Amino acid sequence: MNNLVDLDAAPAIAAPPRMGRAIILPVLIFACFAAVPLALLLGPQSYVLAVVTRIMILALGAMSLDLLIGYGAMISFGHAAFIGLGAYSVAILASHGITDGFVQLAAVIATSIIFALVTGAISLRTKGVYFIMITLAFGQMLFFLTTSLAAYGGDDGLTLAARSTFFGAKFMKNDLAMYYVTFGILLGAYLLLRAVVASRFGRVLRGIRENPVRMEAIGFAPYRYQLTAYVIAGLIAGVSGFLLANQTEFVSPAYTAWQRSGELIFVLVLGGLGSLHGAILGAAAFTLLADILSHYTEHWAMIFGPILILIVLFVRGGINGLFGGKS
C-alpha cells in the first residue's frame, strides 16, 4: 500500500515556505561571507579569516544536524562522530603520504555513509530518549576508538603534515583559498539542503515529524525516509570534518566527543531550529560570543549558558526569529 495517497493532498504535511522575504536573509548572509576577504584587503586579515572560516565549518555541521532535529525531530547527541570521522579520514591518509583532496573526500564520503547506515539502521529502531541515548553511545564508541589509536596520536591527537592538494596544487595552504573553498562548500550544502527540504522528500520528512502514524497510514514508510535523512546529514557533517582538519591542520578525539554534539545543538537553538540559515546565524553568534567571552574568563561557558536560557525563554525561533525568518 505504498504511496496510495497523493502527497500534495496529505493534510499532515506543511507546504514549503514561499519565496520572497524568506530569501533576503540567506542572500545577505552569503553576500557578507563572500565580501569578508575583500573588506580586509587594506589590513591584516589572517585572524579574521580564520575565525570566519571556523564559523562556516561549524555552520556546515549545524545545518546537517538541523535536517535531523529541525525537520525530522531526530535529536542526535552523537552527530559530532561524523565530524571526527571526516577529520580522521584526512589525517590518517595524510600520515601515509596521501594528500590528494579527491582521494580524501572519497574516503570521507565512504566512511560517513557506512557509519551513518550502520548506526542509523540501529538507532532509528528506537524513539525519543532511547534514540538520544543510542546516538550518544555510538558517538562515545567512536571517541574511545580514536583515543586508542596510538599510531595516530591517541589522546594527544595528530598534526597534519600538509593541507589537502588538488591536481597536485597546494593552493589550500593559502588561508584565502581555504576560506573560499569553505565558502563554496557551505553555499553548495545550503542549496542542496534547501532543495531537499522543499522537495517531496522534505515534505514527507516534516509530515513524519508531525504525525508518523498518520504518514504510515497513508502509505509512507517513516523508517526509510528517516534513514535517508540520517545518511545525508552524516555525509555533510563528514565534509565539515574534512574542512576542519584542513583548517586547523590537527585532529583530536575531542572532535568526536559528546560535548561537541552538544555545541551543535546549542548553535541550532541559538540560531533557530528548523531554519537552515538560522543554523548559520547560530554558528556565527556562538563562535563570536565564545571568542569574546574567552578573552575575559576561561569559564566563559558559565556566562554563555544563561544567555542561551534567556534566548530560549524570550526569543521564539532564536536569532532567526528576531528577523521574522523561516527556513
From TrEMBL:
Membrane topology of this protein: Multi-pass membrane protein
Pfam families for the chain: BPD_transp_2 (PF02653)
Keywords: Cell membrane, Membrane, Transmembrane, Transmembrane helix
Cellular location(s): Cell membrane
Keyword Membrane: yes
Keyword Membrane: yes
Record field: transmembrane: 22-41, 47-69, 76-96, 102-122, 129-152, 177-197, 265-288, 300-319
Major localisation: membrane
Entry protein name: Branched-chain amino acid ABC transporter permease
Organism from which the protein derives: Tardiphaga alba
